[in-house]
Amino acid sequence: MDSLTSAFLAFAKQTRVDLVGVAPIERFDEVPADHHPRSIFPETRSVVVLGKRITRGTLRGVEEGTQFDIYGQYGLAWLKDRMLAVATIGLATWLEDQRWEACPIQDLDARIPASGVAVKPGLPAPNVMIDVREAAVRAGLGEIGYCGEVLTPEYGPRQRFQLILTDAPLTATPLLSKAVCDHCGACAKSCPLEAFKGDKDVTLAGKAMGVGAIDYAVCRRCQNGARPNGDHPAGLPDRLAALCVRSCVNHLDQVRGIENALENPFRNRPAWARNAQGEVSLVAGR
Ligand code: SF4
Ligand code: SF4
What is the pLDDT, as a whole number, of residue 60? Predict the structure, then answer.
């Protein structure tokens, strides 16, 4: 690894950024112009993906069904718009101190449609949105699990990501070669609304993954810890505290042994589940 990348990673660790990966721009070759990093910064050589974990305790109130705002702040709003944003601009300023341009990219869903008109022929209309979760896979940080969320070897589904586009010649992180998801099916089995409709294949930068075919219209109505997308109705709902993903947290901690698995199990009591009629039941083993 070159000295610039080593120093960059050391600075990231020192500032408690939990995950950092570097995707060379060539890993975005298959991405259309209206979602491509070079549509925003044409000289981009490297896409840095950084992540901060959602602590397991942040999910505790939702798991017990007694406190949802802890997750709403420390797992979603504050994590995304404060802690992670501060980390992103911190790393961006470090790169510009080394005289490399660094364009910070917030975590907005790539499904949000353009809201302006193209300013030149051949350019996509603003705003170009980059798929941050797919970028995390392209940067070697994780894979798309069967539950449809990014899983990392360190935290399973418990993290959020932002990006920095830069012309810095950073050393690429290899694509993740080991599997995190073992296709146990706990996510799909725990869904009380039967939103999983079968299987599908996804390939990103040559990395093939088998994932669930999820009906997100069902997830948008889910009352099991999921939330509507806070930025735009076209964006996917937030499912990181939903029953399906909490079941994955439980499985990965206990069975797969992710790197940040804690001393005690996550799920200590039957999980609560709310069906389409709003009726609540307790289900052992979920
Ligand atoms: S619960 Fe099992 S199948 Fe679902 S994403 Fe997690 S590891 Fe994969
Ligand atoms: S978000 Fe809700 S409806 Fe969607 S898969 Fe998870 S538990 Fe099921």
Answer: 98
Q: Where are the domains of the chain?
A: 3-283
**Quick one: pLDDT at residue 286?**
57
Instruction: Please give the mean pLDDT across all residues of the chain.
Output: 96
Helix 3-14 and helix 84-97: axis angle, to 10°?
Answer: 150
Max Cα-Cα span within the chain: 59
Among 284, 282, 250, 252, smallest CA distance to 267 is for 250
Cβ atoms 53, 18 nearer than 8 A: yes
Instruction: Indicate if the pLDDT at residue 256 is higher than 80.
Output: no
Closest residue by CA, ligand 2 atom 1: 219
From the CA of 226, how far away is ligand 1's center (Å)? 17
Residue with tokens 């500032």: 15
Q: How far is the CA of 211 from the centre of ligand 2 (A)?
A: 14
pLDDT at 284: 74
Q: Ligand 1 centre and the CA of 150: distance in Å?
A: 11
Contact 264, 253 (CB under 8 A): no
The length of the chain, given as a count of residues: 286
Contact 159, 19 (CB under 8 A): yes
Whose alpha carbon is nearest atom 3 of ligand 2?
219
CA angle 146–223–261, rounded 5-degree value: 45
CA pair distance 142, 137, nearest whole angstrom: 5
